[in-house]
Amino acid sequence: MKKYTERLYNGIIKENPTFVLMLGMCPTLAVTTGAMNGLGMGLSTTVVLVLANLLISAFRKVIPNGVRMPAYIVIVASLVTIVEFIMKAYTQDLAEQLGVYIPLIVVNCIILGRAESYASKNEVLPSIFDGIGMGLGFTLGLTCIGIVREILGAGQLFGHQILSLSWFTPITIFVMAPGAFLVLAVLVAVMNIVRSKMEAKGKPLAKPSGCLTGDCSGCGQADLCTGKSGVQETVAAADPQADKEGK
User: Fold this and answer.
1) Spatial distance between the Cα atoms of 177 and 180, rounded to a whole number of angstroms
2) Which of 39, 127, 145, 212 fits a disulfide with 119 by CB distance 3.0 to 4.6 angstroms?
3) Which residues contact 105 (CB under 8 A, 6 or more apart)?
4) What is residue 203's predicted lDDT score, i.e. its pLDDT?
5) Is 161 in contact with 155 (CB distance < 8 Å)?
6) CB–CB of 149/27 below 8 Å?
7) Where do the DSSP E strands lie in the chain?
8) What is the distance between the alpha carbons of residues 97 and 95, in angstroms, rounded to a whole number?
9) What is the rounded distance in angstroms from the CA atom of residue 86 to the CA atom of residue 157?
10) Are 179 and 149 spatial neighbours (Cβ–Cβ below 8 Å)?
11) What is the pLDDT of residue 213?
12) In this predicted model, what pLDDT tens digit does every residue of 148-194 receive, in sequence order?
């Protein structure tokens, strides 16, 4: 059970796609004009991410290595099409608000990144929890940005007016493109401050590692994708002295 909760923690805190890895910036900046849009985009991506991890993990031994990326894209595209049809049938207003960004989930680097770095090398159940963790982390990021932008830009929260327009003047820049960059920058800065304070207290938050961060030496799956020699070469490149001592 600890392994599964670790995957959830990894996606929500340690390697949060929005605030730590800075992945999926296109929908993050484009659709978060409101909290509901951010929540809807995050949850739809989560559904695709979980199902894609499930299928890719289940078929990881069947998919030929030479065509794995095209195979992943076909799987993800099929799932996105299903999710898009369901959203248009039951949440038509939200689907219209998100527009073209629903089909663009197909090329979301979070989904393809987790498929390549985790689901293709691990069992089905851990891969599902990895997808849930990453999806919830992405949803949290988009929803937080959407909440801040909606409150400051319109005085609303999830479409409900919470700040009276008799005394509050909406800051319209926050519902425009520059507002997305400003809010994202502030929230990332806040997370960095929290990380620094935790380190000062001797309780540091774990730093991201692995395929999506380019840290092969810190990835527990490195031997599976590069072979033992690949790991040794990576470690040797990072610390030549350690390599000499090992010899």
Assistant:
1) 5
2) 127
3) 27, 44, 45, 48, 76, 80, 83, 111
4) 64
5) yes
6) no
7) 156-157, 160-161
8) 5
9) 25
10) yes
11) 45
12) 999 999 898 998 888 888 888 888 889 888 889 999 999 999 888 88
* Distance (Å) of CA 47 to CA 42, 124, 145, 197, 223: 9, 15, 20, 34, 29
Q: Residue 137 is which amino acid?
A: G
What pTM does this model have? 0.79
Instruction: Give the whole-angstrom CA distance, residue 237 versus residue 233.
Output: 6
Here the tokens at position 153 are 């830009």
Closest CA to 58 of 79, 72, 73, 43: 72
Q: Which amino acid is at 78?
A: S
Phi–psi pair at 78, nearest 5 degrees: -65, -45
Location of structure tokens 């499930």: 54
Give the mean model confidence (pLDDT) for residues 126-152: 93
CA angle 137, 100, 67 (to 5 degrees): 70
CB 32 within 8 A of CB 146: yes
Q: Which two tokens stand for residue 76?
A: 């993800």
